[in-house]
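note to self: dont lose this again. the chain is below, predicted strucutre after it. 172 aa total, dont forget to put it in the shared folder this time
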Amino acid sequence: MASINLVRGMGSFFKTCDDPESRWSRCPHDYKIRYRNAAGRQTEESGFTTQDKAKARLAEVYQERKYNPHHQRKAERIQKYGPMQFRECAAQWRESQRRGLAPASLQRLDSLLEHHLLPAFGSRRMGTFDHKVVDAFILTMERNGVGLATQSNVFDKLRAILLDAHASVCTT
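---
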C-alpha cells in the first residue's frame, strides 16, 4: 500500500489493493484519503472513484482547517462541555481526585469548593468562562479579605477544574 503525499499538512491518498501504483488509474478499487482533522486526530475517508475526487476532498478539508482551525476547535469544545454547569463538572473532577488524596486533603478540597468556588460559579455554564471571569473572581476574593494562601489554593483548584473541562474530561 503506497500513498501519495501532497502539500505538507494536506494529507495523502492511496489504495489498499495489491495493484502497483502505476496501475491505480485502471484499477477498479476506490481511493482512500488520510489527513489530520481539526482536533489533530488522524482521519481516513474512503469511496473516492478517481484521484481527482480524492485530491478535491483533501483540498476541501485542508482549506477548512487552514482558514478556520481555531473557531472549529473552540466550537467542538463548547459543544462538548459548554452546557454543563460548573457544579456538575466540579463534582466529576472531585471524584477523580478522591482516589489520590488523604482524608485531610479531601476535607480541605471540599471546604474550598463549598466556601469559595461553588457559591461563585456553581450555576455558571462551563462554556462561559474566560480570563475576565477568573480575574473578577480573584479581585472579589481580595476585596473580601481572603488570605493569599487561600486565594492561591482556590485558584489552583479552579484552574485544575477548568483545564479538565478544557481537555473534555468533564463531558455530559
